[in-house]
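Researcher: Quick test of sequence recovery. Tokens follow.
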């Protein structure tokens, strides 16, 4: 388990240590010993004391903290410092750690002379800075942690342990985030709170809770067949026979001339609607229709619905004992009010054969005059 959650193991181990060997330019800029440094170093006795004190001085300048082991420095740093002091054998520095109190005494003197501060003296100021940074920006804990290190270095503060600084950043950021949530919650109206609460409820039928699945919504609902749809009575109640539409078995082809027919509420044929843009007569198989128009009724022509109605009227008259060919009341009056039966030619659609029993297959009654009717009556007598 990592020491700090938002830092990798390498980043945590590099904190407060030599993460890499300083370059030549860094050595000349940071590890150079000026006159003030040399005056302080010359107060030590023995080469190992002078070299050990110098290593702690340049180390705190570079990483901002003292090492547990003052000699845990790169070889390039040791050689560069010993060269400035004129020490020919850098290995003599091993004697520096023989007395534990010596390194602590040197650390205290370096803090006093160079004005380095302990972390406890600026902890309150750093906490306020982290709180303001978390409140005004949306930066994560890692970014705030790295900037906090820079904030401490700029103020000559010795860096604390990595867990100490990381815990401070995490706690202050969490407190600030909760306070920000409280402020935003207070700005919400009752309606807005209700809408946000509804977002936490999973809609019915949703089983996939992966990111993006809720945004798509539930799939198309499956319509279950009700009881009357699954029975023959229910289908017949909707005008569909037990064996399918029109009493045909399922999958059976419609009879010739019956496809596309429209019936009214009594089951009688109705005139089909004419197309908006009819094709030409030759292309549609109606070359005999003037203008090549399909499905348009012309004066003096009978459509499929007329044939069906005429057949039904003839059946009704035969059932009442009347002549099915006799004209109805008000029909057959010619010019001048004469009792002349005028036969209207009933033409059917040439593209469809006439049905048996239709008016077009009945024998046509010839037009007669009143005198001819009287003569025929007398002849029968």
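Model:
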């Amino acid at each position: 388990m990592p020491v700090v959650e938002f830092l990798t193991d390498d980043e945590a181990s590099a904190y407060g240590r030599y993460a890499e060997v300083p370059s030549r330019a860094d050595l000349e800029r940071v590890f150079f010993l000026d006159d003030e440094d040399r005056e302080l170093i010359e107060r030590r006795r023995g080469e190992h004391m002078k070299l050990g004190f110098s290593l702690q001085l340049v180390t705190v300048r570079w990483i901002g903290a003292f090492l547990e082991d003052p000699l845990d420095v790169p070889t390039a740093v040791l050689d560069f410092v010993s060269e400035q002091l004129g020490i020919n054998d850098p290995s003599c520095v091993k004697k520096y750690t023989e007395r534990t109190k010596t390194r602590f005494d040197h650390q205290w003197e370096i803090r006093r002379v160079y004005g380095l501060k302990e972390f406890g003296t600026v902890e309150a100021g750093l906490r306020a800075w982290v709180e303001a940074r978390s409140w005004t920006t949306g930066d994560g804990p890692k970014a705030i942690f790295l900037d906090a290190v820079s904030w401490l270095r700029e103020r000559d503060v010795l860096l604390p342990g990595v867990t100490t600084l990381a815990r401070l950043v995490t706690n202050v950021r969490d407190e600030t985030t909760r306070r920000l949530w409280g402020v935003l919650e207070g700005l919400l109206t009752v309606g807005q709170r209700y809408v946000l609460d509804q977002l936490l409820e999973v809609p019915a039928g949703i089983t996939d809770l992966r990111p993006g699945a809720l945004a798509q919504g539930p799939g198309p609902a499956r319509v279950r067949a009700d009881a009357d749809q699954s029975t023959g009575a229910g289908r017949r109640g909707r005008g569909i026979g037990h064996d399918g539409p029109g009493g045909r078995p399922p999958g059976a082809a419609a009879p010739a001339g019956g496809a596309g027919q429209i019936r009214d509420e009594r089951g009688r044929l109705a005139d089909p609607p004419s197309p908006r843009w009819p094709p030409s007569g030759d292309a549609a198989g109606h070359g005999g229709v003037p203008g090549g128009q399909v499905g348009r009724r012309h004066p003096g022509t009978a459509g499929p619905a007329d044939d069906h109605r005429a057949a039904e009227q003839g059946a009704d008259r035969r059932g009442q004992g009347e002549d099915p060919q006799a004209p109805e009341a008000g029909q057959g009056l010619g010019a001048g009010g004469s009792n002349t039966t005028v036969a209207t030619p009933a033409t059917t659609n040439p593209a469809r054969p006439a049905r048996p029993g239709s008016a077009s297959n009945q024998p046509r009654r010839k037009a007669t005059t009143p005198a001819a009717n009287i003569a025929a009556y007398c002849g029968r007598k």
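Confidence is low (pLDDT under 50) at residues 221-247, 256-260, 278-296, 329-348.
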